[in-house]
Fold this sequence. Notes:
By secondary structure, the chain is mostly helical. 86% of the residues lie in helices and 0% in strands.
Amino acid sequence: xxxxxxxxxxxxxxxxxxxxxxxxxxxxxxxxxxxxxxxxxxxxxxxxxxxxxxxxxxxxxxxxxxxxxxxxxxxxxxxxxxxxxxxxxxxxxxxxxxxxxxxxxxxxxxxxxxxxxxxxxxxxxxxxxxxxxxxxxxxxxxxxxxxxxxxxxxxxxxxxxxxxxxxxxxxxxxxxxxxxxxxxxxxxxxxxxxxxxxxxxxxxxxxxxxxxxxxxxxxxxxxxxxxxxxxxxxxxxxxxxxxxxxxxxxxxxxxxxxxxxxxxxxxxxxxxxxxxxxxxxxxxxxxxxxxxxxxxxxxxxxxxxxxxxxxxxxxxxxxxxxxxxxxxxxxxxxxxxxxxxxxxxxxxxxxxxxxxxxxxxx
Length: 362
């Protein structure tokens, strides 16, 4: 009878947990980023609390204000600037100041014979149809972005609500984070020798992933935008933000932006500008990713670059923007759990080997 009651209780725990997850699903992003903010700023908040005589509530309030001023407000201003840039570029496309068809004709005329033959080999010899598809696709993309910019007021309430939930939850996670971590550790049905390494691994991976990804994104976006502005490329702010966003995807990242622009500059006759952009892309923008990301991400997570790369892409595919945190965290959990399992199995096997020997000697 007791075993039946235990099974019912376990089933009840699972059902209630799943129900709570479904209720919180609309605010998954807000909860995730609240946890991320608390993990990133908890060391700073702890230092402030010690200097204030242990007043964690005041320290959490000041830390939350710092998050607002240093992270939220700049991100909002940057988003508004990007919206204006997208709308302006779409207006120039509509007015004909940016003629995508003419740009394609210039690229087509400058293609060498081997490139033309390669296109024909892959069935892309119908340049008129290809030009029409490319022109329609680019114009449609900017039209979609512009329409989203105009419709942003309709989703403003949902965004403000999610932002409010994130900040509200961040405050309590900062103030009560240590006590919550202890309760969480005690609630996990694992031995203490397994619980703490697992939780420490999760916290380390989240901190390292966010620090590495955001630092790399900011550096590459700023450098790329400045290079584009110096070279006189239109929409430098938009392309800088785009490079910062694509840098979240390891390995390929910013090349999706600056490589096509460099090719266009070379083909259109701006040889020196194209060469300068290629040099900056390879040895400045690219080196930021190759040097900074392994230091901030790979060193702390102890995950190979290819695991970070694949888990990031898979996470973004499943969870959208939130996936660049969720993907590496799940991958790190997988590696940590199997590492703990392997060590426990070796320890158990070693104990089983020693037991017969001890019995024989006794």
